[in-house]
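Quick one, tokens below. Sequence please?
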């Protein structure tokens, strides 16, 4: 059996946790399985490296930032290989290039184009446990690129697809997929199985347990995914099996604190001007939602939208760089917000669910506003300081 395992940074935060992971890996290896392990950087390593870069420059080069950030995962795989070796097993660590992970040209948010599996298969053939850096690869000109936050999940799933692995296991600090984040919502319930489409919607709405690109790759390649705890020996959540899923009208509640509201004030109401902005967003692979355009005086408009905070700097740079073409008066950014999403089947138009939706809106009063209301999802923007408390209220109403 060929198993790909991915362990996140919290699973590797100190020596004891590294050995805990090493023992899990060795345990599976000694059962006669072929094992490929994908690792994130330890603990807060990535954040600390970003801080170091910004001590030297407010706006460091994206290329050099990728060179720096890639060292976090390289430390992880080397240390894990040393730990596994000390337990008496054959092992080798590989960085993204050595593992054949080919990416698109972008820095900081690249995508995997191909996993050239020859080296990994060669090392497995030698009886090695193969430890691979997550989050990184190499582009067509030979530069190191990183895949963005959560990119190690995508690395693991892409490798599993290339190798046609029997299963890809994502180990994290929670025991699986829950009806809400159990670190925030005290009554959250673990889900035994979830389909690809539902998991993708959950990930896109802010659930951090699994990256949305990883779900897309798993769905495309029909990879069996299991999310489980690094710290407890218990069954996790199966992703991909459409059978036996919960039948509740409302299935999941997600919160996302990594959002901001951007308002472009005094924008010339010309199709060309606005299209320049949209074209730049598309060119830079930036997604925005809840676009609202309102008329101002003298034919000007106000354009507002919600965006992921990781893309905020890029959007501001686009607007400043293209101001002569886009033509606006000023830019307002609101950061102290969060998104709360309620997802399921027939959320709107079902009398039973509608009653609960109205109760939610009544409970939060003037606290927030709706940005998405469809048959499958209700999303609210609320104050970031209150989102955890409100998520608990909403979960109790529906579950």
């Amino acid at each position: 059996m060929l198993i790909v395992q991915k362990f996140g940074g919290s699973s590797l935060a100190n020596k004891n946790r590294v050995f805990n992971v090493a023992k899990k890996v060795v345990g599976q290896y000694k059962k006669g399985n072929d094992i490929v392990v994908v690792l994130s950087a330890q603990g807060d390593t990535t954040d600390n490296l970003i801080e170091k870069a910004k001590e030297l420059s407010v706006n460091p080069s994206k290329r050099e930032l990728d060179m720096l950030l890639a060292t976090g995962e390289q430390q992880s795989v080397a240390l894990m290989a040393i730990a596994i070796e000390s337990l008496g097993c054959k092992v080798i660590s590989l960085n993204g290039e050595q593992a054949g992970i080919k990416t698109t040209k972008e820095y900081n948010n690249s995508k995997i184009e191909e996993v050239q599996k020859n080296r990994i298969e060669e090392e497995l053939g030698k009886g090695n446990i193969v430890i691979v850096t997550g989050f990184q690869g190499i582009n067509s000109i030979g530069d190191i690129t990183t895949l963005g936050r959560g990119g190690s999940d995508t690395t693991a799933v892409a490798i599993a697809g290339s190798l046609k692995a029997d299963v890809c296991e994502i180990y994290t600090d929670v025991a699986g997929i829950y009806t809400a984040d159990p670190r925030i919502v005290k009554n959250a319930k673990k889900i035994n199985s979830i389909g690809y489409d539902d998991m993708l919607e959950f990930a896109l709405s802010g659930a951090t347990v699994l990256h949305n690109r990883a779900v897309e790759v798993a769905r495309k390649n029909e990879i069996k995914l299991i999310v489980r705890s690094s710290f407890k020996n218990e069954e996790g959540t199966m992703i991909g099996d459409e059978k036996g899923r919960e039948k509740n009208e409302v299935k999941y509640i997600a919160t996302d604190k990594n959002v901001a509201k951007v308002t472009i004030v005094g924008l010339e109401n010309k199709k060309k001007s606005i299209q320049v902005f949209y074209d730049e967003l598309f060119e830079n692979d930036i997604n925005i939602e809840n676009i609202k355009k309102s008329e101002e005086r003298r034919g000007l408009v106000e354009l507002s939208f919600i965006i992921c905070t990781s893309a905020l700097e890029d959007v501001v740079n686009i607007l400043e760089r293209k101001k002569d073409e886009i033509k606006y008066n000023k830019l307002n950014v609101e950061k102290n917000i969060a998104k709360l999403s309620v997802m399921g089947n027939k959320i709107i138009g079902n009398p039973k669910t509608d009653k609960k939706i109205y109760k939610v809106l009544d409970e939060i009063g003037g606290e927030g506003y709706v940005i998405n209301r469809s048959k499958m999802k209700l999303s609210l923007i609320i104050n970031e300081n209150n989102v955890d408390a409100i998520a608990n209220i909403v979960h109790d109403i529906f579950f």
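The radius of gyration is 22 Å. The longest strand covers residues 259-268.
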